[in-house]
Amino acid sequence: MADNDLKPITDGDIAPPPSTTTFTPAEPLKTAGVDFDPAPGSKTEQVKQTVKDYSAKYGTQASDRVRSLADTGKERAVGGLDQLSQMITDAAGQVDEKLGAQYGEYARSAAGAVSNFSDQIRGKDVDQLLDEAREFVRKSPGVAVGVAAALGFAVARLVQSGIDGNSTDGRN
Is the pTM of this model over 0.85? Predict the structure, then answer.
């Protein structure tokens, strides 16, 4: 075996220091040598301040953009609900003729409910709507999961029908 091969340590390998030796612990590395405490106005402080400034600026811009998109989405949803209400109201006359006045009233009642829901959404800002949605999820998590699953299924079907429609019109 070569001298540089690893060998197990034995009691003879470890010799205690002489009793006259005094022990002085080493100075901690964080305070030894270089002064790591950045002075005000140092490059480190300037970089920290620059990062904070940019993060605040871009955070504000992102928040404003998200709020703008949410407001646009809310207005689109309200417009869609208004159109749905109008379609149900228009269809109520046909329901009267084909199925009877009682069923036409059901359709008118449904149109009124959709219209009222649209008005409620129109009257609230996005933050209020988000707070109400959070509260609903806290109170009824099971219903919220069911609604999310149903919406996910509906969106998946819409996307799938769009993909199928694109592949059948000759534009593969």
Answer: no
